[in-house]
Amino acid sequence: MFAIAILASFLAGVTIVVSRIINANLAQKIGLLQGTFFNYIVGLIFAFFFLIINKEPLRITNHSLGSIPVWAYFGGLFGVVVVMLQSYISHKIPSFNLTLLIFIGQLFMGIAIDYFTLHQLSIGKVIGGIFVLAGLIYNLILDQKKNEEILE
Amino acid sequence: MNNILSLSIGALISIMIAINGVLSSSIGNYQSVVIIHIVGFITMILVLILNKARINFSKDIPLYLYSAGAIGVFTVLFNNIGFSVLGVSMPLALGLLGQSLTSIIIDHFGWLGMKVVKFDIKKSFGLLLITSGIIIMTIF
Fold first, then answer.
1. What ipTM was reported for this prediction?
2. With left for phi above 0 and alpha for psi between -120 and 50, is residue B131 left, alpha or beta?
3. For residues B134 and B137, what is the distance between their CA atoms, to the nearest angstrom?
4. Using the beta-carbon criterion (under 8 Å), do A26 and B125 form an inter-chain contact?
5. How far apart are the C-alpha atoms of A6 and B94, rounded to whole Å?
């Protein structure tokens, strides 16, 4: 199970990048809004399928739905914006740069959310994040030098 | 400009994960994925109506282009397996490793229509910094 979990976590990362680029390719063919629409309709069908085969005990009742704060349902809205922005940007910068920039944005917003909601500040995450940022900036500077050489 | 937009996508993802986390801890992983997709689907219908955009299912393009939504659900499935066995930090680090290697390979070979960006050996130092950062985050 341990090995499967390691492989699954790795594949989660692989699928994030592949679906991001495929969505961008679909958007180029049929339009940004239309592409995002199909992302959600296909996703919904598969989400239903996995819900059925996983036999997760149904906890959606009037009581449970009422006790959840309304804003908890708005994650899907953020998802729509994220899918659209990713489709827009995916062919404008290298995939690896996009991966790292998204990660850094995610990390520092995550640190801020933890700080304001849980009043916790993870020093390890801050220091680790600075290392990732430094590595990205180093590679971006290399890219820029290379571009300048090509122009010269 | 593109870099700033990319950073904001990451920030939005963090807010989204925090919100979706509240939902999935109240009603379960798979039920929350269905609800998240229903909300996204309704949002898209409204956006399309407001923009008076037309939907055509084009048969002239390869079918796999429609698969991204399905692949996204697999991401959730893989994450659920990872988090349930390994805790929080390990799956995050492994997921980022998966994203990085996939991106480097796709850029290098120009797969899926991406512009070819050959891997530059000089970037190894940057990669070393990035890897150490991830290790520091996972350990602490």
1. 0.94
2. alpha
3. 5
4. no
5. 7
Which residues between 58 and 97 in chain B have a beta carbon less than 8 angstroms from any beta carbon of chain A? Answer: 58, 61, 64-79, 81-82, 84-86, 90-91, 94-97
Backbone angles phi and psi of A15, in degrees to 5: -65, -30
A79 interfaces chain B, CB cutoff of 8 Å = yes
pLDDT in tens, A77-124: 999 999 999 999 999 999 999 999 999 999 999 999 989 988 888 898
User: For residue A49, what are its two tokens?
Assistant: 């399928």
Judge whether residue A135 has pLDDT over 90. Answer: yes
Mutate to test the interface with A, among B2, B6, B49 (most CBs of A within 10 A): B6
Q: What does the angle CA A12 – CA A105 – CA B68 come to, to the nearest 5 degrees?
A: 35
pLDDT at position A97:
94
